[in-house]
Amino acid sequence: MILVIGGTGTTGRAVLPALHTRAVPTRALVRTPGTVPPGVEQVVGDAADPGALRAALTGASGVFLAMGNGPRQEEIELGVVAEAARAGVDHLVKLSAPGPADSPVAIARMHHRVEEAVRASGIGHTFLRPYAFFQNLLFHADRVRATGWFPTTTGDTPLNMVDARDVADVAVAALITKTTGTHVLTGPEAISYPEIAARLTAAGAPTRCVTLTPAELRAELAGAPPWLVDHVLEIQHLATTHPEHPNNTITHLLGRPPRTLDAFLHEHAPAFRASPILR
């Protein structure tokens, strides 16, 4: 039995059906009933609740852990690790973050601390360290439909991005084979936000990328949780000071190339297109 924690998140919602279609006994810990694919067992509860967590871990030999970023993430993930060790789980796949343990990005440092707890627990493990997901671009869709532009502080800096479905496929392979390792995952190219805007335009969704200062972007993000604003600014600053380069890890692990950004943008271009009335 594989327990998926974070099955409604960007990666987890691709992990669940992939496991199920391979006839792998799968269970999800979810806050809301009925949010998992048919045929997937569910335990309704919160990963922060030890009782719900213990119930979900009963009989599980593997765990996929992908908590949403937030102020309590480290506390909750450490609790999952402790309960998984107590339950006798023999393999844990954790969605983590790239960069060194002393990364200037606070959330990346948190991921490394949780990784250390997993190592100390003795559980066999696979750490997946993707860069930004293609799917994150969809957060700009409402703004692009309404205004035709989105902001960034990274200018022409090329950025590593990856399709979350490829990360899910790597996770599923690791869960099934119980292959250990630490993998930095990227798509096939590093690309700047202005180039992404140009490709969206070519896909039929006219888009501009506007470069702002960090202070201007912070003002644009007013109303978002402060920790999230800090995180966005930290990762964008890091990208401008530490060049990002794609690798072939997904091809090596899956025996096929990763999905391309162009394919993703064409798939989702309608989400960025304003109606003729709005234009």
UniProtKB/TrEMBL annotation:
Protein name: Uncharacterized protein YbjT (DUF2867 family)
Entry superkingdom: Bacteria
NAD(P)-binding domain ranges (all copies): 6-175
Organism for this UniProt entry: Actinokineospora cianjurensis
Pfam short name (any one): NAD_binding_10
InterPro entries, alphabetized: Ergot_Alk_Oxidoreductase, NAD(P)-bd_dom, NAD(P)-bd_dom_sf
